[in-house]
Amino acid sequence: xxxxxxxxxxxxxxxxxxxxxxxxxxxxxxxxxxxxxxxxxxxxxxxxxxxxxxxxxxxxxxxxxxxxxxxxxxxxxxxxxxxxxxxxxxxxxxxxxxxxxxxxxxxxxxxxxxxxxxxxxxxxxxxxxxxxxxxxxxxxxxxxxxxxxxxxxxxxxxxxxxxxxxxxxxxxxxxxxxxxxxxxxxxxxxxxxxxxxxxxxxxxxxxxxxxxxxxxxxxxxxxxx
Length: 225
Known about the structure:
The protein is an alpha/beta fold. Helices cover 48% and strands 18% of the residues. Strand 2 (10-15), helix 1 and strand 3 (43-48) form a beta-alpha-beta unit. This is Enoyl-CoA hydratase/isomerase family protein. Belongs to the enoyl-CoA hydratase/isomerase family.
């Protein structure tokens, strides 16, 4: 499910379910959390195997949820994304191919998002009667502003790499996102560790996460699948 490779300066975490477009199961969320949080390297680089970054939550998992288990699944995802956001390492998302739903949320939890020209992004939850509940409502608004966040979340539309760069969803469009992780890792490790928390947006994460998980559970209580 994950392929983790370590160098002295960079831990590379590959989501490795290409047949499922790297969709995340509960076990996959836990493994991802541990892989990032336990890294001793100054930089962690997260990317997807195959032709997608991450399709988000595994829909076979979601179809089996009810209201209570849906809220818990949302909280589980939030714990993983919060752990990525809080990791000591600088976490770089390298998006090549599709990022959908929870895949966008995963990218948003990282400190830096870079993508290839072939990347595309969509918050598709609304088309299924759901929404991104792994902290995505807050992080998307912080990343692109309220207007763009509303457009992406309420429409479910797909944006390409150029649109993602224009809105601030990604910082760069490059042929080799891994090179950006290596570039950052070439800087002083102590400076990176001190600088990272100073760049974080000050938001009421706990309250936003609670509201997100509760709302996600209410939608699943009506069994949209």
